[in-house]
C-alpha cells in the first residue's frame, strides 16, 4: 500500500511511482500466468520495457502528457535514417516453455528500402542473451554488406545500457566483448533503444529463426511473410513524415 500510494516522480518526472508500481506488478502476474498456462507463449518484450510503453500509452490516451507530439510519433513507428546512413533493427524471440531462442534483423536505407535481412536459431538462453546475439549478428551482417554509417536500434533497454559501457565493467562477458570489438572497427555505429512498435519487422524476422536452425537464413530481398509488416511501417512513416523528418538526425 505504501508503494501504491507513493506520489514520487518517476520516468523522468512524467509518472507517479504508484502508477508505475501497479503496472509492473500486473505485468509480473500476467507473465507468470502466460508462462505457466500457455506453452506457446514467447516473450518478445521485457516486463520493464513493456510497463514503460503501457504507461506512456495511458499517459497519451488520457491526455495527461507532457511529451511533445513529435516524440510520441517517433515512439509509435519506425523512422527512416538520414541520408548517408542505414538503420539496423534487431530483435530476439524466446520460447517461455523451452527457452529456445531465435534472432533476426533488418537493414534499411534512407528511403526505407530493404538492404538486407537475417534470422537464425541461437539455442536455449535468456531474453537478454538472445538480444545480444541479435546485435552481434546484425553488426556482422552490416559490415559484410559494406555499411559504414549505422544506426542500430533495439527494443531492449538493458542491451542499450550494456553497449553504452565498456565490456570489462560487465564481467568480461565473451559475447559483450565481441560486440564491443565490432563497435570499435573503422565505422560509425549509434546504438539506441526504441519502443517495440518501431521494431516490428525485426520482431517478425526473429520469430522465423526457429524454423531455420543454427545456420539461419539471410534475405537480400524481403521474405514473403514480412512484406505486410514492411507495408504497415511504410504507411505509418508516410502518415507522420512531416513531423518525423526532424527527429532522426544522427547529429
Your description of this structure?
With 251 residues, the chain is of the alpha+beta class. It has helices at 17-37, 47-61, 69-76, 127-144, 157-163, 174-183, 200-208, 227-244; strands at 9-10, 15-16, 42-43, 86-95, 100-108, 114-124, 149-154, 188-193, 217-219. The chain starts with 8 loop residues before the first strand and ends in a 7-residue tail after the last helix.
Q: Which key features would you list for this structure?
A:
RNase_H-like_dom_plant, 20% strand, alpha+beta, two-stranded antiparallel sheet, RNaseH_sf, 7-stranded mixed sheet, RNase H type-1 domain-containing protein, RNaseH-like_sf, 251 residues
* Structural class by secondary-structure content: alpha+beta
How many β-strand stretches? 9
Determine Rg (CA atoms, Å).
Answer: 18 Å
Number of DSSP helices? 8
Mean pLDDT: 81
Largest sheet: 7 strands, mixed
Shape label: globular
Strand fraction band?
15-25%
Approximate helicity band: 40-55%
Stretches where pLDDT is under 50 for at least 5 consecutive residues are 64-75, 242-247
| First-residue to last-residue Cα separation | 45 Å
Which sequence of SSEs, written as H and E, runs from N to C? Answer: EEHEHHEEEHEHHEHEH
Protein name: RNase H type-1 domain-containing protein
InterPro entries: RNase_H-like, RNase_H-like_dom_plant, RNaseH-like_sf, RNaseH_domain, RNaseH_sf
Pfam families: RVT_3
Domain RNase H type-1: 89-207
